[in-house]
Specification:
about 160 residues, mainly alpha, 10 helices, extended
């Protein structure tokens, strides 16, 4: 589906402390699934300014949902890193405005092609109810501890 936004959310959620700490649970995940997860992490990694993700995105067939954080980073660097006026002339720096327009144009390009999806009420209700039931990160950490209590040092040695 080329939904890089949700992909990033899933990777982020799996990396949170309540989930990441579940070593015994993670050890039960099969190698193929772990390999796919690692590929997804590599794809969305920030290495070389999200280079692998950017290349994949530019070759993706629409429709797609890009990860918006990359655009926000680009716009921040343009805003903070390029002067709004040309030094010693006090003229507007149109090159900066052109770079900003280029980023915004790329965002707009992905808004043109809609997904041919239809709402599934039961699925939407399920997702919403589970999101509400999840609680905050502190509650999730408590649930994580209930699933896998902390090990004592002597237990780690014998495992």
């Amino acid at each position: 589906m080329n939904n890089f936004s949700t992909l990033t959310s899933i990777i982020s959620a799996l990396g949170t402390a309540p989930v990441h700490r579940l070593q015994r649970t993670w050890s039960q995940v099969n190698a193929r699934t772990m390999s796919v997860l690692e590929q997804m992490r590599r794809l969305m990694g920030s290495t070389k300014n999200f280079g692998e993700y950017r290349e994949t995105l530019h070759h993706a067939n629409p429709p797609c949902i890009p990860f918006f954080g990359v655009y926000l980073t680009d716009l921040t660097f343009i805003e903070d890193g390029i002067s709004s006026v040309i030094k010693k002339t006090n003229l507007i720096n149109f090159a900066k405005r052109a770079k900003t327009a280029e980023v915004i144009g790329e965002i707009q390009q992905y808004q043109k092609m809609p997904y041919p999806l239809k709402p599934v009420g039961d699925l939407q209700d399920y997702i919403l109810s589970n999101m509400q039931a999840a609680g905050d990160v502190h509650e999730m950490y408590e649930k994580s501890l209930a699933v896998e209590p902390r090990e004592r040092e002597d237990e780690k040695i014998t495992r």
